[in-house]
Each structure stands twice: as C-alpha cells, then as structure tokens.
Request: fold
Amino acid sequence: MAENSDKPTTTDKSALSDPITLRVPQDILAEVEQIAQATERSRSWVIVRALKYYLMAEGAEILSIQRGLNDEAEGRMVDAEDLFAELQRLDGASREDAA
Reply:
C-alpha cells in the first residue's frame, strides 16, 4: 500500500514546532479563547499568529536596533557628516551628467 506523502507524519510535525509552557493572564487567555472559537481555530493557532505579528513589528525593530548597536561596537559605521558630504558629491556629479 502506498503511503500518502502529503499527510504530515509525527516526525514532520515535531520538526515544524516545539512545545512550550506559557503562563498567560486570565483576561488575555479569555480573549484568545473567544478568537479561537469565532475563527474555528485552536488556541495555539491564535497565539502563534499573534507572536508572528509581534515579531514582524516590534520584534523586528528590536532586532534592527541590536544589529546597529553590534555594528557600532565592532566599528562598522560611518560618520554622518562624511555620509552627507559623499551624498552631496554624488548628487552634484549626477546633475553634471544630466546637463
């Protein structure tokens, strides 16, 4: 009998997620429950979706700031005055090309 390759196996499922324990305030959990029921989804689905939105917004900003701080600490930065001078030089060169 051929095995259906579209159906996820137990190993596939464990590769996709890692179970965690999470303490959630009762008021937030109640809202998660209401949303899960209204959308006919699981609590887990609602929570993962909320985490994805957080990571795309605030989480991404935090990581961007951290990358900037790391760049600064490792000396990968340019003085703002030097950058603006270079931009003005390039702008002037492009205007001369256009003339």
Summary: The chain has a mean pLDDT of 86. The longest helix spans residues 43-73. The helical segments are 10-16, 26-39, 43-73, 80-98.
